[in-house]
Design a protein that fits this description.
Distance between the termini: 33 Å
Number of strands: 0
Number of helices: 4
Strand content: under 5%
Shape: extended
Largest sheet: none
Structural class: mainly alpha
Order of helices and strands: HHHH
Length: 82
């Protein structure tokens, strides 16, 4: 498994009842550092060629835009630390 995916999977499967961890996981995943964004783009292009069969699949840039919007929405939610 590609290292950045391994970390993402670890974060996403933290447990549905642990909302703070899940919220933080989503925020962590939305903006990868510049050092890995090209790897993410290449990985997505590979998936488009070999794994995603939807002819209308969104571009990588569109996915980043949607994730950015999701992050903004999540950050706007009221949050009470435990």
């Amino acid at each position: 498994m590609i290292p950045h995916k391994k970390e993402a999977v670890k974060l996403l499967f933290c447990g549905a009842d642990e909302t703070r961890k899940l919220r933080n996981a989503i925020i962590v995943l939305t903006f990868p550092p510049a050092s890995v964004i090209d790897a993410w783009r290449e990985d997505y292009e590979y998936m488009l060629l070999h794994m995603i069969y939807d002819t209308d699949a969104p571009s990588f840039e569109k996915l980043i835009d949607v994730i950015s919007h999701l992050q903004s929405t999540i950050k706007a939610l009221p949050y009470k630390p435990e």
